[in-house]
């Protein structure tokens, strides 16, 4: 039976940690490695205990000054030979759940459904919304948040990649690459020749293999699997997340704009909640360990206390109101929302120039959206052509 491993980076994930771990153990991951940095809520102590119980492996990510936590953890992981002693590897955040939608919904079912010889599965995100919930709760994620973006929500087409480890791998949060590919054409050619498929089991084209981390209209696929990304959760949980900071040190990443874009609740998607009883039973079994139970409760208490402090700060109610208004933004109005974070440096510089000229953000947003749409259309056509040249019919009848 194939061995499968998850690699994750965490900070202050205590109340949700056991659910995430239990779910992925239940669907078939037999090894989980977690790097933590700067935990305030005892997540690191929880993971130490889980490590002692043989349920995961935990390592500290001591981030040097000027370094970013996530890239530094990935660089540490690349040197961890034991991590790569597996048949399949997935890099995943603690708010991401691999949702298999075929067979018995386990990892083995997904791999059985992929073509023979598959070496990587680029699985698209499915952005999960807040379900209109405002208050934070330490209760499990899966039964709370059961609404999501539709499959054609292009802003949510990022991928996470389940792949077979190989020599000279360069780890990335969305997909792996190859070290030294620019200097070593033979090494790059070997990587480019790998057989990757999308979440529907259809082949991926060369342009994606080269540097893609998002699906296109020709490659997006949800038939076999998706990554349920609980990026916002409740409004108070979202503010707690912003208080924690982020793994790439991006200032003000978790603002109302991000919430407006990713708090998507257009379709009911309760599939993962069917695992809730099994997850709860496994977590309850783990919590019969008195030490783990004490650490878990302490983490929940820390989050409740920290939220109490945030609620008492000036402007908290206003920020909650701002998120509530952001949540009302329909997909059809998102082109009027200026979302700068995903833009390349050139795009961000263009936004700065437009602002300096006094253009309103809504006007800038529409102009940027038009430019992005044109680039996406070019990529759609390019990847569709590449797939047809491979003898593959592009996804979605493109």
Structure description:
The protein is of the alpha/beta class and 398 residues long. It folds into two domains: 324 residues, no CATH class; 67 residues, no CATH class. Helices cover 40% and strands 14% of the residues. The chain contains 13 helices and 13 strands. Strands 1, 2, 3, 4, 5, 6, 8, 11 and 12 form a nine-stranded mixed beta sheet that branches. Strands 7-13 form a two-stranded antiparallel ribbon. A two-stranded antiparallel sheet has the order 9-10. Helix 1 packs across helix 9 and helix 2 packs antiparallel against helix 10. The longest helix is centred in the C-terminal third of the chain and has 29 residues. It is globular and about 60 Å long. The two termini are 36 Å apart. The mean pLDDT is 94.
Task: Give a short synopsis of this structure.
This protein has 13 helices and 13 strands. The chain is α/β, with parallel strands linked by helices.
Helix-strand string: EHEHEHEEHEEEEEHEHEHHEHHHHH
Average predicted confidence as pLDDT: 94
Helix content: 25-40%
Distance between the termini: 36 Å
Quote the beta fraction: 5-15%
Oligomer: single chain
Q: Measured on Cα atoms, how large is the radius of gyration?
A: 21 Å
What would the principal axes of the Cα set say about the shape? globular
Tally of individual helices = 13
Query: What's the total number of strands?
Result: 13
